[in-house]
């Protein structure tokens, strides 16, 4: 009876988590859309726009270790609700400023920093809490629904933002975001974060571990988990090499191919649709049996797709055909990202001890956040010097080479010992 009640509560968590994520992601992206346009209209300066991006990225990199320590040391429910309340208050403060004295860049930058910090605490803690909220058999479904929420927001928020911007004042955007944040607080307050948790209880009088000692313990734990280290190295290489695609795609389509803005927006929409459809598929199918093997194949596909972006630079195409080609490429890329991310996330959720989840996800967040801007800066420099097609092709070959080395057959067998069985070959298509 107790087990049945726990499963019912887990089902409630599954949908509450999804709805909360959808509402908060949608609100955040509509707000980001409006603020980006507002800054560019107010200043006409790319530097001011870039400064707002830095105010988002830099605090995430610096604060992630603190968030990981807090997630492993204190009540995860308290951290998430406190972070959500702080986000609501930050937007409320910006709303008051906009109504009393008008928006200024300082007020926007300050709010961006606060929102970046709160979202880091909330994101790392939520990632650490999945196995405490959901039963083990539905972790893949939870990860897929999470990605589905993000995809819905990615598809819908630019459309809503574009329709509203210019027709309603900025305070309306802020009120929308505040409302979304308040609903998120309410939904999260009804969740039991200890339902399936396996955290050790902290005994009174037990010597407290400092944050530095805690992070060292997290790194020591990682060193003892070779498969986990492989997953993290793969994730880091992907984040860095993804800079070739992030910078190159827009540069090629807008500067080289002279694609009109409407068509460019549609190709980016195809990316979100690809993510959405694959997320829906993974929520309905059984859990992937060999997640690292599936992710490996997905990354090999991702490398091939990245290289394929360069093909219209090598082979001339009619404009309409080129538009259709890039829409298909982006759809495939969005679908492939889900094939890579979801199995890896499920595997990490199951492999990492509950007591170390916060620190491990924080280490991953810190390193990823540091590598992504670095990749964008380096590739931005390279695209000014070398032909775009060769940068993409070489980067895709490096990505394929890295995954073939890091996820070589011996590593596959360590992660999935069944693959060492003569009856199971890595070349098989794994399905259930």
UniProtKB/TrEMBL annotation:
Gene3D superfamilies: MFS general substrate transporter like domains. It is a multi-pass membrane protein. The keyword Lyase does not apply. The chain crosses the membrane at residues 12-32, 79-100, 106-127, 148-168, 174-197, 218-242, 262-282, 294-315, 321-340, 360-382, 388-407. Keywords: Cell membrane, Membrane, Transmembrane, Transmembrane helix, Transport. Its main location: membrane. Pfam families: MFS_1. SUPFAM superfamilies: MFS general substrate transporter (SSF103473). The keyword Transmembrane applies. It is found in: Cell membrane. This is MFS family permease.
């Amino acid at each position: 009876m107790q087990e049945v009640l726990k499963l019912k509560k887990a089902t409630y968590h599954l949908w509450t988590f999804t709805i909360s994520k959808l509402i908060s992601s949608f609100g955040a992206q509509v707000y980001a859309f409006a603020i980006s346009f507002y800054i560019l209209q107010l200043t006409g300066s790319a530097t001011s726009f870039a400064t707002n991006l830095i105010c988002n990225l830099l605090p995430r990199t610096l604060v992630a270790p603190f968030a990981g320590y807090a997630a492993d040391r204190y009540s995860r429910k308290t951290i998430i609700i406190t972070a959500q309340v702080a986000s609501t208050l930050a937007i409320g403060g910006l709303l008051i400023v906009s109504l009393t004295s008008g928006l200024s860049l300082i007020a926007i930058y300050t709010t961006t920093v606060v929102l970046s910090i709160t979202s880091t605490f909330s994101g790392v803690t939520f990632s650490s809490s999945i196995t405490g909220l959901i039963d083990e058999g539905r972790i893949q479904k939870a990860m897929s629904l999470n990605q589905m929420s993000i995809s819905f927001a990615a598809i819908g928020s630019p459309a809503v933002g574009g329709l509203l911007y210019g027709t309603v004042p900025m305070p309306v955007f802020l009120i929308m975001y505040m409302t979304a944040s308040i609903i998120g607080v309410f939904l999260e307050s009804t969740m039991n974060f200890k339902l399936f948790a396996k955290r050790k209880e902290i005994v009174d009088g037990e010597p407290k571990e400092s944050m530095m000692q805690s992070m060292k313990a997290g790194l020591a734990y990682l060193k003892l988990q070779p498969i986990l280290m492989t997953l993290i190295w793969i994730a880091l290489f992907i984040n860095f090499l993804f800079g070739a695609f992030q910078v190159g795609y827009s540069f090629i389509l807008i500067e080289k191919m002279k694609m009109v803005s409407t068509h460019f927006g549609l190709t980016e929409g195809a990316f979100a649709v690809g993510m959405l459809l694959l997320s829906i598929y993974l929520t309905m199918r059984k859990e992937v049996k060999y997640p690292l093997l599936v992710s490996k194949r997905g990354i090999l596909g991702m490398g091939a797709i990245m290289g394929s972006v360069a093909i219209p630079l090598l082979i001339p195409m009619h404009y309409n055909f080129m538009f259709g080609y890039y829409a298909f490429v982006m759809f495939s890329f969005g679908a492939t990202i889900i094939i890579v991310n979801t199995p890896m996330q499920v595997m990490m959720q199951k492999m990492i001890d509950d007591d170390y989840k916060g620190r491990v996800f924080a280490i991953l967040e810190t390193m990823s956040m540091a590598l992504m801007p670095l990749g964008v800066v380096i590739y931005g420099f390279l695209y000014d010097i070398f032909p775009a097609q060769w940068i993409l092709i070489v980067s895709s070959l490096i990505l394929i080479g890295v995954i073939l080395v890091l996820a070589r057959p011996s590593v596959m067998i360590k992660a999935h010992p069944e693959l060492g069985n003569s009856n199971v070959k890595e070349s098989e298509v794994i399905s259930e």
